[in-house]
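User: Can you recover a sequence for this backbone? Please restate the input before giving your answer.

Assistant: Of course. Working from this structure:
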């Protein structure tokens, strides 16, 4: 089995930017959902555009095709992303630059949507480790990420875990409000039982340096999901950094990654 740790200012929610965001929407029949990422890894430079129904309908998630998708770098260079699959827009070979400002400009069904994000400096993973953990009499292995948090800026992070045949579905986010400038030993998840059979004997961990608006989106999305479990009122929608009422987020972020052997 796999067990994720809930830590101060780390939010674990059962969704990911690779999967449908299934959240209750307030006062909406059909809302555009944009999930856009520009990174220093060309594999992650992708804009996904879909529509989601309101809370009281089927919550179907449908790709939006034939949209106009442009990325503007530092207010001047303009790049057009093309639809490579239904609702998926990419530009072959495009790589984001650390410190650059990016604007996303989407036109879909006659409406324009704009978002802005600046790519923070990359924070490198120093190392990964596995240690024993004892939880209610059971012994498991805990995977820990080690890195140096920079002292000069407020930093926001997202941790992602990839296994041989799957991707970790939880989203872990963090900010350095209480550990600014410190060396960080962050426990991410533990493994036990039939883990190797289900997930394999190794993992890749990514540390994403995200900006404040993206952190706020995932933080409020977690609150929305928690409130959605209630029975009496629809919760507020998560805070998106995209204009004109679109759901989702646009993030320019830097990625550091390392692999680790989980089972000897």
């Amino acid at each position: 089995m796999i067990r994720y740790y809930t830590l101060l200012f780390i939010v674990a929610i059962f969704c990911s930017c690779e999967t449908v965001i299934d959240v209750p929407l307030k006062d909406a029949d059909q809302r555009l959902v944009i999930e856009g990422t520009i990174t220093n890894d060309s594999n992650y430079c992708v804009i996904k555009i879909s529509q989601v129904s309101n809370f009281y309908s089927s919550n179907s998630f449908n790709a939006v095709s034939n949209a106009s998708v442009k990325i503007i770098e530092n207010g001047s260079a303009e790049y057009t992303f093309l639809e490579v699959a239904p609702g998926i827009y990419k530009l072959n070979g495009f790589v984001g630059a650390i410190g650059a400002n990016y604007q996303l400009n989407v036109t879909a069904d006659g409406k324009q949507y704009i978002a802005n994000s600046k790519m923070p400096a990359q924070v490198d993973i120093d190392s990964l480790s596995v240690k024993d953990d004892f939880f209610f009499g059971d012994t498991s292995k805990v995977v820990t990420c080690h890195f140096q948090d920079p002292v000069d800026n407020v930093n926001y992070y997202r941790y992602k875990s990839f296994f041989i045949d799957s991707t970790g579905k939880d989203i872990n986010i963090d900010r350095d409000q209480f550990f600014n400038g410190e060396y960080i030993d962050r426990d991410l998840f533990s493994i036990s039982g039939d883990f190797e059979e289900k997930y394999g004997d190794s993992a890749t961990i990514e540390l994403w340096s995200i900006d404040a608006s993206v952190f706020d989106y995932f933080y409020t999305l977690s609150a929305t999901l928690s409130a959605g479990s209630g029975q009496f009122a629809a919760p507020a929608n998560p805070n998106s950094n995209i204009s004109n009422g679109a759901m989702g987020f646009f993030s320019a972020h830097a990625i550091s990654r390392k692999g680790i052997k989980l089972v000897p």
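That completes the design. The first strand starts at residue 2 and ends at 4.
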